[in-house]
Amino acid sequence: MSKSFKILVFLFAVLAIVLIFINLNTGYIALDWSSFIKTDAENHQIALLRMNRVLAMLLAGISIPTSGFLLQEYFQNPLAGPSVLGITSAASLSVAFYIFFSQNIALPELLQNSFLSISAILGSLLLMLILLEISGRFPDKNMIIIFGFLISALAGAVVSILQLYADNQSLKNYILWSFGANNQVSSNQILVLGIFVIFGIFLSFKTIKPLIGNSLGNAYATSFGVNLKQLKLLIIIASSLLSASVTAFLGPILFIGIVVPHFSRMIYNPAKLWQQWILNMILGIAIMELFSVISEWSQLPINVITSLFGIPVILLMLLKNRN
Questions:
Q1: CA angle 112-117-119, nearest 5°?
Q2: Residue 288 near residue 259 (C-beta atoms within 8 A)
Q3: SS3 for 136?
Q4: Rounded Cα gap, residues 316 and 14, in angstroms
Q5: What is the pTM of this model?
Q6: N or C: which terminus of the chain carries fewer CB neighbours within 10 A?
Q7: What does each C-alpha distance from 289 to 21, 59, 173 come to in angstroms?
Q8: What is the DSSP letter of 30?
Q9: Integer angstrom CA distances of residue 239 from 48, 97, 140, 257
Q10: Residues 213, 216, 222, 224: is their CA dihedral positive or negative?
Q11: Which residue has the higher pLDDT, 279 or 170?
Q12: Whether the predicted pLDDT of 299 surpasses 90
């Protein structure tokens, strides 16, 4: 690992830590450190909400950029990402089915959170399997992007139908979820989300070395002993776990999975895939913590902020590639 890369990682890690502390201190009420440490402090519950908010953004900053990074490297397309390929929409549709049809089922909170996340993951896994099957039929991988847009439109139409016939409470719950209320995540939800993210990151770690061979072509990868079918399966599971689990608890956070890997390549390129992956996660944490602070200041939902940020960047990417 080069000295320049170590310095870069250190600087972005410091930036991420600073933004975490700023996020902890952002809110209507000024808190002292005793509120975070002492359980009997007057504002301990508010401090606990802020800690959950910071942890949720940290996990989202790790998972969504990693999911986008894996998809971009596998499909060799800088526009591949969980939102563009329709993975986020498929997860959102699964969550919509769960919210609208599980209102009358009494379950403990931990099980409710687990089923919410599992429903999102199953929906995204199913879509990823379809995407990979289609990718084998079309030599032009840009067709996958078009297919992802069509899936997103279809999922949006089905959700609209569900909303039309849903009862008021289910509709309210879904709308609140879709806003991406990062300040409403409970400790149990953080626990479940953390378990899924850790498992997804472990699977991602297993894909990095095979992806290096895959980037040089199938024949080269096979000659060096890369199991392409196993790599495909790992990419499906890891990217779906990472993006869908975050979507389940924080709502659809769009475009971050495309933009953060793009920024990482701009900041340090050329770089080994290991270095890109590490930089992705640190930069992702810093960006998500910053967006969380902006969300608290402006009272805008987190997914609105990510869209306002991501769409212009992607448009610039398209114009740059065209030229």
A1: 95
A2: no
A3: coil
A4: 28
A5: 0.87
A6: C
A7: 9, 10, 25
A8: -
A9: 29, 21, 22, 10
A10: negative
A11: 279
A12: no
- Asked if the bond preceding 108 is cis, omega within 30° of 0, the reply is no
For the chain, the structural domain boundaries read 3-322
> In 10 A of CB 283, how many CB atoms?
24
Tell me the C-alpha distance between 67 and 69, whole Å.
5
| Contact status, residue 236 vs residue 132, Cβ threshold 8 Å | yes
Sign of CA dihedral 50, 52, 261, 2: positive
Out of 2.30.22.10, 3.40.50.1010, 1.10.3470.10, 1.10.10.10, select the CATH number for domain 3-322. Answer: 1.10.3470.10
For the chain, give the percent of residues with pLDDT over 90.
26
What whole-number distance in Å separates Cα of residue 19 and Cα of residue 84?
28
d(CA 224, CA 220): 6
Residues 268 and 210: their CA atoms lie apart, in Å, by 22
Q: How far lies 93's CA from each of 25, 75, 133, in Å?
A: 35, 24, 21
H-only helix segments in 102-227:
109-135, 142-165, 168-178, 187-214, 218-223
Contact assessment for residue 82 and residue 313, using Cβ atoms and an 8 Å cutoff: no
| Assigned token pair, 149 | 């847009």
Q: Which of 133-147, 156-170, 230-244 has the lowest mean pLDDT?
A: 133-147
Residue identified by tokens 């969300």 is 295
Contact yes or no for 128/239 (Cβ under 8 A): yes
Pair of tokens at residue 182: 């990062």
Task: Please count the CA atoms within 13 angstroms of the CA of 232 that sit on its side-chain side.
Answer: 13
- Summarize pLDDT for 234-275 with one digit per residue, the tens: 888 888 889 988 888 888 888 899 999 999 988 887 668 889
- Cβ count within 10 A of residue 176: 14
